[in-house]
Amino acid sequence: MVSRTATTAADIAAARLPAGTIALWWLGQASFVLRGPTSTFFIDPFLSATKERLVPPPFRAEESPPVDYVLCTHEHGDHLDLPVLKVLAQRSPNAQFVVPRPIVDLLTKEGIAAERIQGVQPGEEIVAGATRLFPTPAMHGLNCPPAIYDFGFELSDGLYRYLGYVIELEGVRIYHPGDTLVFDGLIERLRPFDIDIALLPINGRSYFREQQKLVGNMDEREAADLAAAAGVKLLVPTHYDMFAANLGRPGLLVEYVRSTHPELSCHLPSHGRRFTFMKGDA
Amino acid sequence: MVSRTATTAADIAAARLPAGTIALWWLGQASFVLRGPTSTFFIDPFLSATKERLVPPPFRAEESPPVDYVLCTHEHGDHLDLPVLKVLAQRSPNAQFVVPRPIVDLLTKEGIAAERIQGVQPGEEIVAGATRLFPTPAMHGLNCPPAIYDFGFELSDGLYRYLGYVIELEGVRIYHPGDTLVFDGLIERLRPFDIDIALLPINGRSYFREQQKLVGNMDEREAADLAAAAGVKLLVPTHYDMFAANLGRPGLLVEYVRSTHPELSCHLPSHGRRFTFMKGDA
Amino acid sequence: MVSRTATTAADIAAARLPAGTIALWWLGQASFVLRGPTSTFFIDPFLSATKERLVPPPFRAEESPPVDYVLCTHEHGDHLDLPVLKVLAQRSPNAQFVVPRPIVDLLTKEGIAAERIQGVQPGEEIVAGATRLFPTPAMHGLNCPPAIYDFGFELSDGLYRYLGYVIELEGVRIYHPGDTLVFDGLIERLRPFDIDIALLPINGRSYFREQQKLVGNMDEREAADLAAAAGVKLLVPTHYDMFAANLGRPGLLVEYVRSTHPELSCHLPSHGRRFTFMKGDA
Known about the structure:
3 copies of one chain form a homotrimer. Chain A is an alpha/beta fold. Chain A has one domain: 4-Layer Sandwich (Metallo-beta-lactamase, Chain A). Helices cover 21% and strands 24% of the residues of chain A. Chain A contains 7 helices and 14 strands. In chain A, strand 7 and strand 8 form a beta hairpin. The longest helix of chain A is centred in the first third of the chain and has 11 residues. Chains in contact: A-B, B-C. Chains A, B, C: This is MBL fold metallo-hydrolase. Chains A, B, C: It comes from Reticulibacter mediterranei.
């Protein structure tokens, strides 16, 4: 049997996609590879084989397929995996990095050249090859307890420290929110994008996990309600699979969507397996 | 078939309990009748037949069995059902009322005599016949959005506006938290009571329910974690059954308890049915 | 901390129950201790510390409290734990054993005196002190595959080989079905007993478990539907906790009961913890 590891990396590198089609591979937690016909994006690539992982990375950074753009949403280690970013920068010398402006220096300290890094803020549209990126705010926190959920202005001279991205590729709109609660104004921001695919965390938050230093997220019902309220077509739950102390419940998401938002499709990819979406799918 | 209505009220009135034994009847939502051999308590009696109810009250206030003490945790209508309190005061002319001190006047305005009402605060031990009551803080909110969870000090001249109660009856310790999140210091307050039975809300909170003016509670995992951390023996989930927009998930509670806190027993009473507990049960 | 082992055995021995009250301790799987004010019953006592167990026995046979009657439903090792029965017979020299008539010789071969063993069949009412026992049929199988569910007549010269029991103690009626599917006539047999507590297996059956030699049972929805159809008041799920390959899902039971049979109460005891029931409870 060829190992899943070899399979996923090779599959990403080899995929040939027709115009109007994108492909996604879930690497676990909030980590995705997104490909169009001419470019490859990594989003929050978390590939370090830490001992707390319940699921091994589908491939090691040293085996990574070529990448054009690496997007990171915030500085937590499962989203900004610095040793991995360093290796990716070396293996793909033309890759560009997009991160929240307040954390650009974390990458330069790893030896990634400043000109390869774009520090961004909500409201700025980024052009990445044939792709457009729209950074969105995320309401999160760096540490807890105490659990304080905000945009990180105090830590960052008034700048947003936690981001999500809406990515437009081949006419398909994908929303990766980073880590976030649902907050006032988020639905209104998302609706105009007419989002096709939302990759939403479902692990939730609780007092007891906050006491264990686990900053929370929306839960599965909030994720479904958000997707429905924003007019999303396909909901892919994330951030529920990687750490024993911070699991989510995808079965409950599916149960809730089917009973409450039947217009919404759900896809639950297996780790490292490709799924494709053509404009018009749902 | 005798109606459940007639059955429950008659059953409460008729129950003969041996020493060391208490009986409980769940009336739906957070509403309970608690009896010992010599006294009867109502906790948050919600008996108005409002049209939003999914479950009718097991009996009407006008059919109520005699009551000695009526405890209310806070002023929301599903906990402080004023028309019902007024009728109970008339039907049981010796009944005493225990409520948070800042809302005593809500009862006097209904014509309940001030000398029958005890306005209480955490830290004050109340003697009610052979029973001891210990008011505990609750972290809740009067209105939302915006959702702000606190103790109500600002609305109440520095007093706690939302309460729970630990009730000691026949040596059995019962905790009714009112509506509350889990908050710093709650576990430490509860542990010394060596609580036998905790009647905990499990409906949770979410952004979308807060937008619908539904102030949240702990969810089923937080309730189980709280009960386990506080050393509770028997967990009875509440506040999950009454309003379509604010349901909880008792099956998930049981799944989580059995897999995560196997030392904890759970009881899921049917509405209006008696269940008893002897000191030493669990 | 005192070990659960020491606690449970001592608790059983020490319990003082008022008239009209019975107490139960779940020992895991289908194994229970039942006490009234004057007598102690073991039902399917499975106390051998086999390596496949997920949950250790709450006490060893050698530490067992005194027992008056030992009931076994059929000969599978998690129900008829012969080494344990032998020890119990020695420790409680007046204990009587009640088993299906076709398997009496399994006990005599262990050295338990024939006069201490009552081999029973459905339709025979057994008087056990102040208690009445009513054996009921169970539809099960000895081996699989192939999976053939029947009453065991072919193996037993036309006798029922698998039994359940309705036990009447202090006016409280308890149904322990042994291992069984739901079958024609079972509901009609149970209804006249006006059963208070049903201890029902919920592990279900599946082709794939039958291929692993696991003869099945009713599942959680069948257990709930059976309890409701038979007019049971309190449902206690069993047989879901002990073997990794044969687990049941108590959370789904509770979800189904609450949504489909709200008149039914559920209790989910922790292993080895006492729960009591007074006639009139539900």
